[in-house]
Each structure stands twice: as structure tokens, then as C-alpha cells.
């Protein structure tokens, strides 16, 4: 069985040494108590829960899956009990607002816990994970009365939440949605329609499920400007938060999926269900956008999680499995063959996984920290952080999930034929990882957001804010010992700016030029951004080694991995550059009818 | 349900117009009857069988899987009946030797049929497909008596065959195998040991199963030089090919796998089973190598098959699914949104699939035709063809299966969230495709074969034989109309030679340099080789258009796709070049202990 061990040393390295979180949180009102020591203690507790309770349920959950009956959805053995422990230990409220019973810790800490929980068992994380969007929506846009009614139970984890957006005919294009909301005499709405792909839409873990539903009012304009937001609880709720009646919302079936099989993906029927409007009518999509970034970062973690888990499994195997002799002579002469970690190509795959996992961890923690600055920093700092988040979030979501899928596949490859067999657990990681490039906005949607809305839409300002930041970092570390990282980083950063200008110019005369460049542009940006985080890690590691600090091996490993990244992975950006520079004609000139020939 | 339609126009284009098979087979003794018309007629019949009988069983087979009991293995509903039809229609004997009841058609035709059958249902193809190695082994190395006893029934498809190589502790490194063969008084051997990953090792489709087994004689040297080859039938066989006794070989269990679930992957126990030596003792591995190339090409087809099937499914969806408006204005103004094929990024993914499928088809048919020249051409031609095959086979096996997996993933991506749901059939293609990079030699093993044995091992001769061939092709088509393809092809070809010299030089002082470069070298070679076949197709298409022939749209589509390939995919070779040129240090310098930090 695949066992997860939380990489506590690396987590601490990024939080404390790379992101200097102690100094950052000290200056953010309300987060002063989030000292390095307190965070480390909480993370260690989270690691125990992830390793001891959730990791053992990962393969069994995949094997058993969820089952549906008219009475509801049954989650796999152990899932509900693990959730009970999760709630008892107060994990759901960790980074929630104290006003509603939260512990008020930084979101970054929540992200770290989610990483460990999700690496141990991504399917399981989907149940508490989906509450996040529901809570954020109510916090930001609910009336005081709605907040009082729903948030304490949601924050405590007694209830869970969902986001009901997708319908059969619309996923990326929510303008096409048809679910209707009819005003009732009592001020509520009767919600009617069918939503699909509703994660945690029904399950056996919590007393109530609070659905946030996108629907149209009778007089709503067509398209995205006519969508409103409603809260629709499974059981309606009395003023004192006690449960009232079973609402007319039911799970009609669950999907058979490629992966994350222990996560119930529900078809939800709303048959005149009682719902309550959140915020202004017809503003639903705008309201949703307010926490889009945090939701995307939450999904980006999946790429990191699967890269990490696959790396752990593959490394263990590569050290134990014997096959062939090293090309440079036996390394295990008394054994029948050498362990496969002696072979350069096995190391290439392992280092690719390691570089993706650790680099993504730095990127995502940084984004999570930015989120905390947005929430609590002064206006100037918050604005800067928000701009950086706006640019980097689509990169993180799409690039990290694509890279995580690659890493998961290397894990299978290192196992050879055994990787294809279910009992080893490696192929499950590939199946689980595949969804991450699809939900919460596909890679293509993220790429349009990055290039169209963020880079071109800001006239380049969001991009230069980041590249200036990178430039300052390079200038601040003008040291021979790290020039091997900073020189190429500077070169790719400058080229990124040049490429953006060139694409922008072409797109002015033909909008398809932006669409044709978008995904390669995003992947280019992803490799350069990951390069920036590897350079930051390398600079810290180099400084620690120069200062003669303990943990020499850890820092040496960072430098080796950084070197691998810059020499072996970063050059992939060049292929994406060539593809995006090739323009739209090679995609658009072929008439549609010719595709079938 | 995903329906397969055989791409007959493209198949004909490659066989007749690109590879000029009529002229080739006319000159090969015994293949004179394989005229274009006869081949086309046979292919059309094969297409009907694949489309009508096998395609409908693909998803149901995945869903049901195989089941094991002490009595044997039950294949999914419809599989055995389809096999009965296959045998009745004479398909198994199509390209087999007439001496044993075969129809004596070219191997290329067999490859075309396998492509269609395998695209419709790869799991099903595994049952007749595994017989191939068994038949080839007996044809090449069996005694006359063994041939007479086994081949007629195998060729007719009444029996099937297997290859029993892998054991739990050894896959790529067969030198570690432990199965033992004890000589018996009657000249037979008692075979004892456990083999794993035996495809079609047990099933309910045929009256007997003939296992080709690698095992060690009592006095055998250690390692690969002590392996002998045996034939071990499920039921021993009388001289007249009637069945005698149930042999002591049994299927102990079948594997639960990521994909190809309808193909039984068996653990086979040999408990003193009666076996018969094939060829000389201790020469087993050498004997196996004689048909390694055809087996690898057979597996390479899987990459082509999955790229084609995923393309067909994705194209259908991209034309029907409505989401968003084209960035350049509505293309379907009366509809609620535009079909997603108007979006550049969807076209990018579709064209990637199309370029991989059609380019791989040209590459693999070419290799199959070379195989026929090796078998039947005069000594000079046979030697030339054999050299080309030696070089190109590992490229085809590894590159086409890697590219096919990428293509299968694009198919899922085009479906968005629906791609992750089983009922659409798209995620099955990804799961089925994943095995192809693992079995019959992993990508890493193929890469070592290519760079180590073939390129460096021949002192560059095998490579220059091919690059000269490419050079002659370029020189022969010095035409402004195709210079956009031939100019970059020439450039990459020259660079390939330069890179090979550079790697060879480094490897002389450090063998790990070859291992560190191998997979990127293979991928580089793959992109250039596919470029050669796209250039060949473009040259033919251009000539047909210039000559004003019919089917203008078909040839235009070829030129568009070739352009896409050269502008968008071929530049990926540069990233592989940079990685392979970066040397072994970034993989080997890190001490093993540091991987865990």
C-alpha cells in the first residue's frame, strides 16, 4: 500500500526560510499569533491526521467508491468516521473568521493542511473542501441573517456546502444555464432545474448540506448578465440554526468516473426547492468571481499533491527494485542487480517529480500568503498582492495541474508494468490527477483568463508588476554562486515581456491570435514562474550553506534539484515559445469540413 | 457510445500513394498477388468487422472486465463470439505462411487489419495478437515436428499462443529469471515457476493455449546467457494435433489494472508442466530477438490506434458541443453559442491528435512494408530494409506510444468535465493507452536500444543510412511549393547527426552520458522521423493538387496538417535537444540519500 509521509522539512523550509512568514504575519492585523512555532505545531498535528487516518483510506476508497440509493449516497468505509474526527479536532474552522466560530489562522495554513490532507486522500478532501466556496460566498455576500443562520454550522464542519454551477449543456459557458428561480410570496424562491458534476452534493458525513446555486430569475437578461445566486439547504434551517424540513433537492445519481472515485459527483435535481437570494439579482457571476482565486489555488494544490505522492511512491520503489547493472559498473555488487535509482533515466523522472512538487509548493504557498496580505494588509500592500494573485492564479491552476499529471505518469513509468496494476496505487494517482486540468476552469479557460483578461486586459500592467518583482529579486542577489539560476531567469523574464507585446500586437488585428497563443503562452509563463521559485529556493539554500548552517544535505538537495530544473525542464519553455509565435493561421486556416478527412 | 469508423481514405493514401505498395509488392516473390485492389478489398472487409462487431464491445468490455475462477477465465460478453467470427472469416491466417495454412499476404496488410481491430477494441486484439509471437517463434526456431504439431491450429486461430517472459522480480532485466526446466527421461522438460503479466494466458475463446516460456536448465549459466526457450501447451498435443492431457500450467489469478481491462493479464503457475525445448539450450534470449522488431511494431500500433479513436470522438464532440462565441464573432448566430471547434485551442488539440495519428500511420505502415522486404527482398534490399528497421523500430515503439497517450489526453480535454466521465468512453482511451509505454520494453528501454545498441553500437552507420535516405528524399523534391517542410526537415536531420556525434563522444568517457541522454534523444529522433513522414505525405498531396486530381479537400487537409506539424509540434524537438545536451551531471551528481530530503 502506498503510504504518505508529510514532507515537513520542505514545508517548513518554504514557510519560514523562503517566504519568511514569521515577519509577514507579524505585520498583518489579526494574524499576529500565527508565529512560526504555532504554525509548525499545527502542521505537525495535521500531518499525523493525514498520514494516520486518511492515507490508509485512499486506495480502499478508490476500490469501493461511492454508492447511490434513493436514500442518499454512501461514502466508502471509514470516510464518515474520518470526517467525524476531523470535525472533533476542529480542523474545518482553522482559518475561518472568529466571528462565526473560526480560529482565525491564516489561509496559508489552511492551504498547507489541505495539501497534506489532499495528498493523503484527494477524494476525501473534496467533502470538506467544497464547503470552502460556500462559506466564502456567504461571508462575502450573504445578509447578516444568512450568515448567522448558516455560517457557524458550516465553519464548525457540522454541515458541508457545495457550489452548484454546471448543467448538462453548460460548463465553461455559464451564460447558457437554464435553472430557474421563481419568487415566492414569503420572499424565498422556488428553484427548478438540474445541476451536474456537483461534488459532495450528497453524502453521509454531515447533518445538512448547503448548496450555493446559480439560477435565473423570470425576468433575467440572457447570458451571463442574468444569473443570480441562491442558497438552497438540503434541510431548511430555522432561525436558531436547527433543521426544519427536507427541501426539494435530491441527488438523482452519481457519476462513474475515471478517478477520485470516492468523491461523490452528483446529479442534483431541484424540484421547486426553497432557496434564498444572495446579494443583488443578476449579479451572481460577479459575486462568484470574488473568491475565484482562492478556489483555483485550492485546485492547483491537487497538482502538487499528486506530484508529491507519486514521487514518494516512485522513490521508495526505485531504491528497492533491482534491475540491470549501472552503465558505469555495479553499485550493488553483492545483489543480483542494482537498484534502479542508479539508472540516469530513472533519476531523470524522479527529479522531474521532485522539481515539480517542491517548486509548486513554493508557488502555491506564496500565493496563499498573498491571499492573506490581500485580506489583512494595508491598502497599498493589499492592492499589490491582489495584482500579483490576479496574474499568477491562472498560471498556478493550469500549469501546476498539468505538471502534476506529468509527474504522476512518471511515477507509473518508474514502476514499469507494475505501475499499471492497481494494487501498487500508482495508476490511481494518474486517474485522480486527470480531473484537475478540467474542473474549476480547464487549462484552456485559465489560459484565456491569463492572456486575455489579465495580461492584455491590464495593458501589460499586471505582468510587469510581477516581472519587476522578479527583476528586483535578481538584482538583489547578484552573486557568482547563484548566477547559474539568475542569468537564465532574467533572460526568460525579458523574453516573456517581449512575447506578450508581440502577441498583444497580433491580437489587435485578429482576436483568434490570442486564442491560438493562449495555452502555450500559459505553459511558457508556468515554466518561467516555476523557475523564479526554484531560484528563490536556490538562493536561500546557497546562503545557508555559505553560512555553514546545519542540514547541509537538505540544502545541497535543493541546489541539485534547482540545477536539474534550470538545465532540463526550463528549456521546454522554448518549444512553447515557438508554438505560440507560429500564429493562428496553422490552426484557423483549415476549413472545418476538412477535419474529417 | 464511442463509434469507430475506419479511416479508409487515409489508409489507402498511405499504402498506395505514399508507400507505392503496388510497385513494391510486385517485386517481392510470393507477394505478387497482393495488388492494391485485392488489399483494398480485404481492408474494407476488415473495417466492417472492426466497426460492426468489435467497436460495440469496447466500452462494455471495459465495464465488465474479465473474471477468474478455478475453472478458468471468463472474457466479457460478446468477446468469445467475436473471436469465433474472426476465425470463421479466416482473419488469423491472413499473413501467415501458406505451408501451415496461411494466406501468405504481406505483413503490412496484417498490420493494417490490426490497426483497425485494435482501434475498435484494443483489449480484444490482445487475444489473437499474442498468438503472433508464438507463431513467429515456432516458425523461426521450432523443429519440423513442433511446427507440424502446433502451427496449423495456431495459424487457423483454433488455438492461441502466449509469450511467458516476465516474473515478479524481473521485467526489463530477464537475466534475473528463475523458472526452471528439468530434463525428463522422454526428452521433454518439467517446467516449474511463476510467470506474471501473461496476456491471454487463460481465456474462454480457443481450444488450446500454447505458451512460449523462458526458463533455465539446471546447469545453465547465470544471467541472460542461461535462458532457454520452451513450448508448453495448456493441453499436450498428439502427433495428429489432437488434444491429449491437461498440462500442469494454470492461471492463479488475473490482475486488476488501470486499463485494457477486457484483456486477461494472468499470473501463470507452472508446476512441473511438460515443456519442449525450442532450438539450442541457453540461446532463448537470442531466439526471441529475431522477431522483437515485429512485436514492437505491433505495440506501436496501439499509440496510433488510441490517437485515432480519441480524435474521432473529440472531433464529433467539438462539432456538436456549443460553448461561447468565437473570439472573431459568432459563427453559429442562430444557436445559443458556437460549436467549440471554432475556438483556436480546441483546434490545436484536434490537429495535434490528427497529426499524431496520420503521421504515425505512415511511419508504421512504412516499417511494416520494410518487414516484408526483409522477408522477401533480395539480399541487398533485405539488408537495407533490416538496417532501417533496426534503427526506426525503437523510435516507433516509444515515440508513437508516448504521442498516442498525449493524443488520448487531448480527447479527454476537449470534452471538458465530461471527458472524465466513463460513459463517454474518452477516459477509457487514456487508461487503455497508458500500458503501451510500459510493455514490450518501456520507453526507457527502447531509448537505450536506440542510442546505445543501434546508433552508437553501429558506429553511426544505422543512423546515417536513414539520414542519407532522408537527404535523398529532400534532394529529389527541390520544389518551392514544399520548401516549408523540406527546409526544416533538412535542418533537423543535420542536427540529429551532430547531436549523435556529441553524445557518442561524451559517452566514451562516461557511459552514464548515454543513459542520461537516451529518452530525450529518442523523443528528438521521434519528432524528426515523424517530420519526415509528414513531409512525404505533403509532397504527395502537393503533387496531386498540382496535377488537378480529384479529392482536392483530402489533399488540402494533408497540407494544413503538415503545416501544423512543422510549425507547432516539431519545435518540441528543441526542448529535447537542450535537455539531452545538458549532460549527465544534473542527474548523477546528487547522492542517492539526498533524494529523500
From TrEMBL, chains A, B:
One of its GO terms (molecular function) is oxidoreductase activity, acting on the CH-CH group of donors. Belongs to the acyl-CoA dehydrogenase family. Involved in the assimilation of dimethylsulphoniopropionate (DMSP), an important compound in the fixation of carbon in marine phytoplankton, by mediating the conversion of 3-(methylthio)propanoyl-CoA (MMPA-CoA) to 3-(methylthio)acryloyl-CoA (MTA-CoA). Keywords: FAD, Flavoprotein, Oxidoreductase. This is 3-methylmercaptopropionyl-CoA dehydrogenase. It catalyses: 3-(methylsulfanyl)propanoyl-CoA + oxidized [electron-transfer flavoprotein] + H(+) = 3-(methylsulfanyl)acryloyl-CoA + reduced [electron-transfer flavoprotein]. Residues 163-271 form the Acyl-CoA oxidase/dehydrogenase middle domain. The keyword Transcription regulation does not apply. Residues 466-591 form the Acetyl-CoA dehydrogenase-like C-terminal domain. Its EC number is 1.3.99.41. Residues 282-449 form the Acyl-CoA dehydrogenase/oxidase C-terminal domain. Signal peptide: none annotated. Its cofactor is FAD. Residues 68-158 form the Acyl-CoA dehydrogenase/oxidase N-terminal domain. InterPro entries: Acyl-CoA_dh-like_C_dom, Acyl-CoA_Oxase/DH_mid-dom, Acyl-CoA_Oxase/DH_mid-dom_sf, AcylCo_DH-like_C, AcylCo_DH/oxidase_C, AcylCoA_DH/ox_N, AcylCoA_DH/ox_N_sf, AcylCoA_DH/oxidase_NM_dom_sf.
